[in-house]
Amino acid sequence: MSPAALKDAALTALVALALFAPLVGLRTDVAPAGGLYLRQRWDDVAILVALAFAARLALLAWRGQRRLPTASTAPGWWEAPLRRLGALAAPLLLAVAVLLPLGAFSWDLGAFAIPAVTGRYELDLGILVLTYVMLGWGLNIVVGLAGLLDLGYVAFYAVGAYSYALLATHFGWSFWLCLPLAGILAAFWGVLLGFPVLRLRGDYLAIVTLAFGEIIRILLVNWVSLTGGPNGIGGIPRPTFFGLTFSLSGGPGTFAGFFGIEPDPSHRVVFLYYLILGLALLTNWVSIRLRRQPLGRAWEALREDEIACRALGINITVTKLTAFAIGAMFGGFAGAFFATRQAFVSPESFTFIESAIILAIVVLGGMGSQIGVAVAALVMIGGFELFRDLQEWRMLVFGAAMVAIMVLRPRGLVASRTPTVTLTGRKRAISGELVGEGHG
Amino acid sequence: MSAPAAPLLSLDGVSARYGAVEALRGVSLHVGRGEIVTLIGANGAGKSTLLMTICGAPRAHAGRIVFDGRDITALPTHAIMRLGLAQVPEGRRVFPRMTVLENLLMGAEVAGHDPAEDLEAVFALFPRLRERQGQRGGTLSGGEQQMLAIGRALMARPKLLLLDEPSLGLAPLVVRQIFATIRDLNLRTGLTVLLVEQNANLALRLAHRGYVLVTGRITMQGTGAELLARQEVRDAYLGTGR
């Protein structure tokens, strides 16, 4: 054990001490008498610091034998198989997504009796994951394709949710009428945000969009007469299946009554599941189509080099505003879905952390990659649920996973980009190797 | 060679500033159809600013810019570029993560015609680009990137090609190839070129006419050969004096 290694480990322990002393050592608890008191947990701190010290020593000893993996934007070992399976992987994921609700029922097919393998919980989780897949794909248009760093995407989610909530509760308009309206309103707000930030890039753009997200949230909290303020809006009508409600009465005019089946609360959940699956797939389809259009190529060119775009006569204003508008529109659709699913909206659902999670999904997935974003949403949201038993520690797992990805794969899980056009018809994916982040 | 009666591009007393800095002070010049005109000058003389001002960024605050019989002084950049100007920006600025083919198609985006024919023409001009069509722009060598930038500009079928320092950072041999291609294009297709260069020797040999820009003003003009023969030009820009 060299003195240098000991010194390094001691430094690590010192950093750990500085971090854990306030975070773990001091804790406010409710006293038996009712008041708050400060509980001190120095023994826990000592254990953690000792762990950090030992782990650092072990890491140094291990690194002495072999080199640490370094940051790489080269194609990961999973990218080539993923691409080879590309024609298979995406449909496979899609098939799982489509078939998932069927597992919620037990099927009696003559000789076979298939029991229910998934339940209400899996379906709800599926809906949650798909909502984030859709939000990820929506934000991917703005951040991944057009390269405009947007930290306030949740604002459009909120606009969509409140649009549906207000239109449905005040005017009694149906979900299918309100859905496009919510999208249009969100797109309108996207353009409204787009105008003042036309000249901004990078950090400055991020700050303004961050502020925009907060402005919308604070507006929702304070405009009590319209939005109900912090109390939110409740009693939002649930969606209907072409006019058939999912009521448990089973009478005429209900889904169960019309089809002559036993009323079951899971019908609505399955319907909501397929609804968000359809919306997410629509987002994906539109993104893929647009990427091959001149507009989509202009977005990507804008991400690469704004000055070159100007020199080629591309209208930067229109290109940026359409990216904001279309990205926001899908956020609005997702928001309307969120409102109808929850039957209740309040500003609490639209805090900055939501924007951060959606952006993390896009960045971790690999900016601009559709399948990467879907996988990242599955891992982030699903993984978050998986570690629910860890309680407060799951934030730690989450943070560690983020750090690991950013160290090992700074360009995200799927860093390569598929060309939008080839003359030979053969599409070779372009690796992210040797291209610096942001500026190539 | 004398310019035809109505020049393709003419600048009349154009001034432009970057913030408080007066970068161009009453510049007048013209480029006739089928001509190669070069603009030489030292670092910071305003050569690139002049090209950018023609494109409307920064905007000229005095004077008039007429292209193809139309006053473009106040038009927005994207509208100017749609009239038949194409710019090869300084430092090439290819789109690094997009393929060579995608880069080229970006050039045709604004022109609104079927790019297939132009693509063939560019590939015929630069066979190297055909070989590398599936490769990312950022992985090309400097010379290939310059070819790509020129090819991209040609995709729009421009009447006037604005070239900003095509020799920047390239090996002498590659520079000569690029200049030969420009001459060839001009001879074959009658493409009009406005070339901004620091490499005055090569530029004046290539061009029919030239202008010398010093701190935002045109101080000399003449045919390429005339300017090459002038002692002041030789001293200041060719490093052959003394």
Automatic annotation (TrEMBL), chain A:
The listed locations are: Cell membrane
Q: How does it sit in the membrane?
A: Multi-pass membrane protein
InterPro entries, sorted:
ABC_transp_permease (IPR001851), LivHM_N (IPR021807), LivM-like (IPR043428)
PANTHER family recorded: HIGH-AFFINITY BRANCHED-CHAIN AMINO ACID TRANSPORT SYSTEM PERMEASE (PTHR30482), HIGH-AFFINITY BRANCHED-CHAIN AMINO ACID TRANSPORT SYSTEM PERMEASE PROTEIN LIVM (PTHR30482:SF20)
Transmembrane stretches in the record are 45-64, 85-105, 125-143, 173-195, 202-220, 240-259, 271-288, 321-340, 352-381, 393-409
Q: Which gene encodes it?
A: livM
At the highest ranks, the source species' classification is:
Bacteria, Pseudomonadati, Pseudomonadota, Alphaproteobacteria, Acetobacterales
Question: High-affinity branched-chain amino acid transport system permease LivHM N-terminal domain: from which residue to which, for each copy?
Answer: 5-99
**UniProt keyword annotation of Membrane present:** yes
Q: Which UniProt keywords apply?
A: Cell membrane, Membrane, Transmembrane, Transmembrane helix
Q: Does the keyword Repressor apply?
A: no
Entry protein name = High-affinity branched-chain amino acid ABC transporter permease LivM
